[in-house]
Amino acid sequence: MKIRSYAGITKPSFLLVHPELPALTSRNPQFTSLFTLRIPCNREKLTGMITRSQYSVADRRSATRYGDSSVSNKNTNRLGPRQGGSSSLYSRPSLLDMKNDRMENRARVYEFLRGIGIVPDELDGLELPVTVEVMRERVDFLHKLGLTIEDLNNYPLVLGCSVKKNMIPVLDYLGKLGVRKSTFTEFLRRYPQVLHASVVIDLSPVVKYLQGMDIKPDDIPQVLERYPEVLGFKLEGTMSTSVAYLVGIGVARREIGGVLTRYPEILGMRVGRVIKPFVEYLEDLGIPRLGVARLIEKRPHILGFGLEERVKPNVQSLLEFCVRKESLASVVAQYPEIIGIDLKPKLLSQQSSLKSVIDLSPEEFGRVVEKMPQVVSLSDRPMMKHVDFLKNCGFSLEQVRKMVAGCPQLLALNLDIMKLSFDFFQTEMQRPLDDLVDFPAFFTYGLESTIKPRHKMVSKKGLKCSLGWLLNCSDEKFAQRMDYDTIEMEEMELLPSFDMNTLTEPRSDDSGSDYDDSDDDYV
Known about the structure:
Blueprint: E1 7-11, E2 14-18, E3 36-37, H1 43-62, H2 69-79, H3 84-91, H4 95-115, H5 132-144, H6 149-154, H7 163-177, H8 184-190, H9 199-212, H10 220-226, H11 238-249, H12 256-262, H13 271-285, H14 289-298, H15 307-320, H16 328-334, H17 343-358, H18 362-371, H19 380-392, H20 397-406, H21 415-429, H22 433-438, H23 447-461, H24 467-471, H25 475-481
Antiparallel strand pairs: 1-2, 2-3
């Protein structure tokens, strides 16, 4: 086969002929792509070959980019849509272009955040919205929840949470549990990380665990509102060990639900660093371990008193104000809050007030604190009213001082009830005032339930007894005394006192513990 005056490419199944092939000497070469296809074949394949051939020639002779307008436009027009697959490869943005676009978008988002007062420095590396509009939507949503710019600056990572994918599902779940919407603001200020959580993977298992600790479903919202950080704890970590330790020292298992409901912060306390040292310190003061367990059942918040920051300094203050070391256990057992308040200023204030009003000595003030440690929390005005009442009853200042030192509860009783009891003492019992000076605890007994019926029985029998013998005993003990013909002196108890054994009395409904009571397991 011979072809004259033609440039051609031969293949077994077709012949491509260019009747004219220019010298390509101009800066913008013009191609003539008229061709004759003598034997039909795969047209797409043929088109690709032509395109590659044309680009190859153009690249070698004109040294222009693939996007040169004269070459690109003409080839595109001639080949039409059949070349779309090849040309689209060159129309896609490069990785560098995409990176630059992302950087520009992030810069615009940062500029928006700075404009409203948010410092975005901590957001580097965090996936953010690509548009300012989406970021504005997130900020507006958080504002509607009550969070301020200051709150967002405290935890700017919350801006990485999607409104639809993260925030709304979490808040809907909390609402279904019963957490009040009015508490959402404070909830999120304390634990904004909850918005990153998965309801199914993170939140729901914690709620089920709390219910397994005998926290009632109706109390779950209260627990979460009080201590939202609990939603971020691991189930088999601090939560389980703290509960196990409490049960191990004697906290009744049936009380655990109530203890955690009233003070869920226990679930975040480390046994070795917080709970165990606190328990052991109270034991060193003289409170039996079971007694400590009973105190925790009644007032679980005492575990939150800082041992080094508050408890030990307060105990030292009690000693400085003449509270005897052997009485420290009784003081704490009667009023556990005394080791958790700002104590020293209160002690100074109360000592000064009682000194000025009834001339109470420092030693007597120490006895007052031992018998009624709550005196440190009484306000001056009510105390002065009680002192004035006693003076108006006819007691001298010296007698009032002795009565207060012997029964400091006189400074906190209901004045109306005290007046009724004193009227009965004067009109019915007709005893001298000295009897009240010797036994001021008379005012602490119920008039109708104790004083009147016992006085009637003693009068009927014709016995002459002290107020202490009459009142300072149980009903069973008093019934036995009514069988006596004479009053034995050893049974004439003067004043009631706190009995530490009341903390450790056995419970008939206690269940056995399945937890090991070994302290070595907690570090």
